[in-house]
Amino acid sequence: MVYLTRKAEFSASHYYHNPEFTPEENRRVFGKCNNPHGHGHNYTLEVTVKGQVDQRSGFVVDLKELKDIMNREVIEAVDHRFLNEEVREFRDRIPTTENLAVTIWNWLQPKLSVARLHRIRLYETPDLFVDYYGEA
Amino acid sequence: MKAYMTRRYWFSASHRLHSGSMSPEENRQTYGKCNNPHGHGHNYALEVTVSGQVDPRTGMICDLTDLDRFVDEKIVQRFGHENLNTLAEFKDLVPTTENLCIEIYRILEQDFRQAGIEKIRMEETMLNSFEYAGGREIRH
After folding, report:
1. Domains of chain A by range and CATH?
2. Are A119 and A48 contacting, i.e. CB atoms less than 8 angstroms apart?
3. ipTM of the assembly?
C-alpha cells in the first residue's frame, strides 16, 4: 500500500451566514466572516489516494489522470468563484472550510476508479487546515 | 512511552520511466514526458519517521547522529547524483517514486537497528508526494 498526495491551489471568496440565526447571532457566531460582500482565500488542496503499486507501470495511479480529474471536478468549479453564489452545493450550506472539504471529497470520490481516495486536506490559510476521510 | 520522530533529507537524482514489458507506444502513453530516453531529474525530499520508546536516560528515541549517518551513507550517497535506472535496485524495476519509497524503506528496515522505521515520505516535486509504511495503513 502506497499513499500518493497531489497538491493544487485555488482562490475563492465566501462569507458565513446562517439564515436561521438573527443578524446579531450571525455577527456573534461568524464575526468578520459574516460580511455579506464576502472575503477571499488562497486555498491549498491536498488529495491523498492509496493503492497497491502496479507491477508493470510502478504507479499507484496515473498522476496526469489524477491532476486532470482534480482540475475538472474541483478547480474549475471553485477557482475564482464566490462560493455562496456560484457553487450549487453552497446555496443552502455554509461554505466553511469543513463543508468545502466534504464537498470536494463527494465530487472526487465517485470519479476515482483505480486508487482509493484516502484523505482531503484543505488549507484555508497556511495556518489553518481541515482533514476529511469520508464517512467511515 | 512510544514517540515518533521525523527527519528530513534531500538528494537529487535522475530517472527515466520506462518498462521493458511494454511496447514503445505503451511506454509513451503510460509515462508521457517521463519516458524521454535521456531521463530527467528531481530534487527529492526524503522524510524518515522513526518510532520507539523514549529512553529515560537520554530523553531520545534514538541518537539523531546515528540516523543521519545511516541515511547519508546508505541512502543519500547511494542515490544522490545518480541516474536511478543504472542502479542494481532498478535493473528490473521502474524507478517511480512509489518504488523508490519502497526501496528506501527496505534499506532502513533491514539495517537501521537503533529505532523502528515507521514511515517514509518522499516529495518528488512541490506538488507530488508519496508515503510508504511497509504496507501498513497510515494514520495521518
Report:
1. 2-132 (3.30.479.10)
2. yes
3. 0.86
